[in-house]
Hints:
Blueprint: E1 2-6, E2 17-22, H1 30-38, H2 44-49, E3 60-63, E4 68-73, H3 82-97, E5 103-107, H4 115-128, E6 147-151, H5 159-177, H6 185-199, E7 202-206, H7 208-213, H8 217-223, E8 231-238, E9 245-256, H9 265-268, H10 276-291, E10 297-307, E11 319-321, E12 327-329, H11 337-350, E13 355-360, H12 364-370, E14 375-380, H13 382-394, E15 399-401, H14 407-411, E16 419-420, H15 430-439, E17 447-451, E18 457-458, E19 468-469, H16 474-492
Parallel strand pairs: 1-6, 2-4, 2-5, 5-6, 9-10, 9-13, 12-16, 13-17, 14-15
Antiparallel strand pairs: 3-4, 7-8, 8-10, 11-12, 14-17, 18-19
Amino acid sequence: xxxxxxxxxxxxxxxxxxxxxxxxxxxxxxxxxxxxxxxxxxxxxxxxxxxxxxxxxxxxxxxxxxxxxxxxxxxxxxxxxxxxxxxxxxxxxxxxxxxxxxxxxxxxxxxxxxxxxxxxxxxxxxxxxxxxxxxxxxxxxxxxxxxxxxxxxxxxxxxxxxxxxxxxxxxxxxxxxxxxxxxxxxxxxxxxxxxxxxxxxxxxxxxxxxxxxxxxxxxxxxxxxxxxxxxxxxxxxxxxxxxxxxxxxxxxxxxxxxxxxxxxxxxxxxxxxxxxxxxxxxxxxxxxxxxxxxxxxxxxxxxxxxxxxxxxxxxxxxxxxxxxxxxxxxxxxxxxxxxxxxxxxxxxxxxxxxxxxxxxxxxxxxxxxxxxxxxxxxxxxxxxxxxxxxxxxxxxxxxxxxxxxxxxxxxxxxxxxxxxxxxxxxxxxxxxxxxxxxxxxxxxxxxxxxxxxxxxxxxxxxxxxxxxxxxxxxxxxxxxxxxxxxxxxxxxxxx
Length: 495
Ligand code: BES
Ligand code: MN
Ligand code: ZN
């Protein structure tokens, strides 16, 4: 994909299409009329009087011309959000990318012209062209788009940086979409290796023996039920001597059957996506390897495991010894993500993390609480949770904080071990009983947890994106790293 900026619409290639958004219940803005005039399209009002341009959310109307113009409805002004605008652009690009256009331009509305919206538009175009049909041999809907332009007067954006971020998000989406028997923990490790070579990252992948040597009894407990060995993946970039060591931890369940606490058939349908956290970490590390933020160390750690009910599977009632010595009674083998994360978080601390973020498709309760609109955000101290929340908002990914009251720690008290791996159904708050367990493994280090069970993949049509992996979290993590790098530079070079 090529990307450039154009300030005059009459300079656009004739075979291209311009994607523009508009609000319902209002006159078409002058800027849109001017744009239509500039590209020689004069039937906007006719279409409006025929009732074609209602502006309902994500509906598209194509005006053929040289270039063509695609209008995407954004519904009412009072419901406007940056997230919604980005999705509308994605929906529009998805539509035109399957209709033979080789070049797409995005018209940034006058009141939104800024670096942030330009970079978001690049992400939306790449997302709209994303090919999710990795295994199809026929009926392929191949995107014809080869290049994009942003129609804006603002020239502050780093368009190539945005492109690297967007392509890294596509990498994360691919990983989620791969069939689970193709993307085993070992295969994920191999992909991490080749990605590291491509993006200039340091990498280390440990198999079962290495994980055993580290004493990760909880992660190994989860791995026992599968014939596939687990993998512990470490990716790194930046300054090893820095006193800012930002560490991302990703849940990498390449498949979660539930183990002996077996899921229903329906509950398992999307469990190839239970490595969405790992995918986000890999995608973010790829982008950071290419973007090279200075002055900080960034580390990505992934616990990759398959959760199956094989003959050696851990059993409800088993007690696992984690890396930091604490013991966990397993009451439900389907609460496996927190077991894996407990060990990987301990490892992150041992490696010297100063700032921690973990991403995990951890609980169905996160989907109950927030649906597919937002990830659940938890952590401490509040100042760090705010930094992560602000980075997510800036990246146009929704994260909504839930409170980690100390009372949730009582819910996972065990009679025979230091804690148990579920808080039980009675009492609710499943996101927070899970987070309470994680919090036992992050002593003293600022830590934020994103439960992305509802946002990592799309199960049924949402009107703007492809079914499957979303790449949620990649943009947030990259934004966060850039902010920390900027802070570090400020400390070294006070103005
Ligand atoms: N991977 C699942 C959570 C999940 C559910 C992710 C739906 C994405 C979509 C996780 O390992 C799990 O099974 N959690 C259990 C925990 C319970 C047994 C305490 C759940 O949420 O039901
Ligand atoms: Mn599970
Ligand atoms: Zn899981």
